[in-house]
Design brief:
Elements (H helix, E strand, L loop, with lengths): L13 H7 L2 E20 L7 E20 L6 E6 L15 E11 L9 E7 L7 E2 L5 H11 L3
Antiparallel strand pairs: 1-2, 1-4, 2-3, 4-5, 4-6
């Protein structure tokens, strides 16, 4: 039997997205680093004690244009995602400008096990309503400015 995962989201308000995010910013994608990852997962099956899984891991390096929420010690930030669609991962084109609602994760990409912790990293998903900057409505920008206290 194969595992199948699909992305299913419900639409959240700007306030809900903002409150649920650790770092909210607009930025330009300046680098895309794609990796194919092969992982072994322990199983309860004595004949096959490990299951092999392959997935994408993509690092998107952003130059921050405007920071709405969170702290960073650099004008650049890396966001890691699977780059997929059905698993809720985002893919950003090089040089594109995005509004990003990101959150800190401490589990491997595409792994929902609470036992397999890794060094925390920033991620996002299609459910966070991260989108191209040109698709952000003025109303959303005004709400983010208000929530952030930026003048």
């Amino acid at each position: 039997m194969s595992e199948i995962c699909a992305c299913s989201c419900y639409k959240k308000s700007v306030t809900e997205n903002y409150k649920g995010a650790d770092l909210v910013f607009t930025g330009k994608v300046v680098e895309v680093i794609e990796q194919k990852v092969i992982d072994s997962i322990p199983t309860d099956n004595k004949l096959n004690p490990f299951k092999i899984r392959r997935y994408n891991r993509v690092e998107f390096k952003f130059k921050i244009i405007k920071l709405y929420k969170g702290e960073t010690d650099s004008e650049f930030v890396s966001i890691y995602t699977t780059g997929g669609i059905s698993d809720c991962g985002n893919y950003f084109q090089l040089n594109s400008k995005q509004l990003v609602y990101s959150y800190i994760k401490d589990r491997r990409l595409n792994d929902w096990s609470t036992k397999r912790k890794v060094k925390p990293y920033l991620s996002t998903s299609t459910c966070s309503q991260t989108k191209k900057l040109r698709r952000v409505k003025r109303k959303e920008k005004r709400k983010l400015t208000k929530l952030s206290g930026i003048k």
